[in-house]
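Appendix B, Record 12. Input sequence as logged:
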Amino acid sequence: MNATAITTYSESGSGALTPAAGVEVGAPPSRGVVGMTCLIIAESAIFLIFVVAYLFYLGKDRTGPTPRQVLELPIVNSICLLSSSAAITFALSSLRDSDVRRFSFWWSATIALGAYFLLGTGREWRHLIYDKGLTIQTNLFGSTFYSLVGLHASHVVIGLLALCFVMAFAIGGWVKPKHAARVHVLALYWHFVDVVWVVVFTVVYIIGR
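Logged structural output:
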């Protein structure tokens, strides 16, 4: 975690306060945070393209099924994924407070909630494919639905793999409070995944129906 730079001032002859010589007036931003921010901006642009495509083709199918006929609101899934953002925030706070045991608990909770979301997505897809006959080749709705939701699911998978990697280090006793800045970078990615789901949920399950 980067320390906050503290500026000291000296009084000049005119009585004005000026920064003291040799004192750092500002710390450079973390390279990890900057890199993750750039990645999030790029990924946001990709998601925007898929969202626009979904909305553009919405209602233009000549054959069914339609979203209203087959889609159900994934309420429990959404609650679990959004709750994982709170869990990872608690985990990061615990690590910054040097409580590694509590960090491991909340980090494990984040993984469990994310995994449940993926499991729920898999169940939904199985229901749509085998019970409702909706595949990626069925119609425009099927193509755009699986593309958009699948893109988000792939990012959840990547995030979970990274979370499990950190968890393995925590179990081995290699995660320390000094690593909080690096954990923060990964937490930013996970928050991004959750925010994107809010957009996907709104577009697909509310506007799209």
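DSSP finds six helices and two strands in the chain.
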